[in-house]
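Before a colleague's protein record goes any further, I have to sign it off. I want your independent view on whether this chain really folds as the tokens say. The record follows directly below this note.
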Amino acid sequence: MGKPFSQELKKIELTYKWASSVPIDDIESIKNSLFHKPLFVVGSGGSFSACVLFSLLHQYHGSIANAITPLDFQYSKNAISHQTNVVFISASGKNTDILHAFDLTVKKEPESILSICLKVGSALSKKGANYSIANTIEFNNPAGKDGFLATNSLLAYFTIISRLYNQHADIKSLTLSKDYQSEISKFCKSLHKDFTLKVLYAGWGKPVAADIESKFSEAGLGNVILADYRNFGHGRHNWFDKKPEQSAIVAIITNEEEELANKTLALLPKSIPVLRIQSEYKTSTASIDLLVKSFYLAEEVGKLKNIDPGRPGVPSYGSKLYNLKYSRLFSDSKSILSEKAALAISRKIGNIESTSIQKDHLSLWRQAYENFSKKLAATTFKGIILDYDGTICSSKDRLKGPRERTTKKLNEFLKAGLALGIATGRGKSVRTDLQKIIDKKYWPNVVIGYYNCSQIGVLSEDALPITTDKIKANDLSKIKDFLTDEPTVSPFIKKPELRPSQLTIEIIDKENSGVIKNIIIDYLKNNYTFKIQVLESSHSVDIIPVSTSKVSIVSACREALNDKAGKFNFLCIGDRGKWPGNDYQLLATEFSLSVDQVSADPYTCWNMSSVGNNCVEATEEYFDAIEPVKSFFKIKL
């Protein structure tokens, strides 16, 4: 099993050059979705070292992260929520552990799931394709499949992950110097037959230390004990006093901890063999450099032990252990809730498996869910009012308009005599997009609320929305002037777009969007309290007068239908139902469904889509549940 380790090392330069330049689809949106929330990075075996690097980079960028194995993840599942992200790293994307962890994660519905595989069309990527919250980066590594140990795949991961966090710097050559080769050879010759390596590290050396332990354990090369330089000082040094002849040190060093490493090593007995694996590079580029240097340590020890690390031989029970299925051993305990109710309630209040949530509290939420479900199923609706971006048009399709399946459904509803309202923060672009996809004979039946419904008309009215540049000096124009001139804001946003009743701000610097939003919001609170409101859409921040509301479109739809008595019911669907989302008022109406964020209101704004689906995919799921009958409809979810 496997292939010669020396042959794998010959492909190192090829792998590095490939991983440094291979296109990563949708890299900007991936980075934007990852950077701002706590992160779990899940992987097994050799891939775990890449998980450690991923978590280090995430923390370096200011967010909490934890590298974790699939089994440990089982015990951390209650920490997964809409406020977290999860990354899976697996070269083959097919092992039992990673697939089980993925299934577990989907049920918990984090904000997003990212899988990174070095095999196109893996079982993991196929699972991810079933859920809109999941994304997969997959490649076919030109170096081919690893031998028994993760080698070229690991180098590829280190490089690609560094690129995701904008920390990749070019390493001119990964070929070992003759001096370093000599140091490795001399060190290995000094090792005891039954040696134990104490691997010391700090910072960017941590993922490399994890990989040394992995390789030496998996290939049976020798004992390895890990410690960072200061934790080593808290008693772990005593190992050398008790087993001096068997002990040796591998010191992983970057410029950041070089002085600490030197002082630590200077205090130890001179008789203990020491190998310094050192890099002059910074951050994760140093990790890449150190990783490759550590590969040659494994190769040299393999020669000493007469074990090829690329094909060390695997006992018959090894394969059985690798493929052991254990998911049924952790089956969920019985709940007072159905799976559907549990999912919907979790979206409202968070993790319902938490021990802090009492059964009587859950019973109240179950009753609220059942009441809403029954009322929704029993109600006959005349029309549908929809948010646009994130609801019927995905962020990926923002410049193209709604996808074909969504378009087909909208025309079917109009053909059946249903009323259609669109409430959007955008302007003319929505009208032109809808005129392209909706049959012209239905245009008079489509009501559009532009700029969060500050202007409302039907799809056939080409004069709307009014976008005249002759806008009177008012609070919105003053805010625009401030944002344009303010040096802590203006370089990081597009030029604010001022309309008669809306100021739209799009943040360019997604990585620091939280800070920029806080500056804007605090300025507005201090100067315009009770005059304006700040709402967030899937792509921008909208500042509008307090009198503006998407709820206005309900009245406009009634007027279009001559429903003066208010007899007709409308189903409202949007994606940002939680304040300050720009749908929170629309989805506070009596009959509303969210396709993403929900409010904590037990009486409305429920998300009843299937697990792992949100935004347009969830909208299409709701559309499939609509049954038109004689210009009215019911919905069965």
Notes: The first strand starts at residue 39 and ends at 42. Residues 475-545 form a domain with the Hypothetical Protein Ta0175; Chain: A, domain 2 fold (CATH 3.90.1070.10). The CA atoms of residues 626 and 635 lie 4 Å apart. The chain has five domains: 5-172, 178-316, 340-372, 380-463+548-635, 475-545.
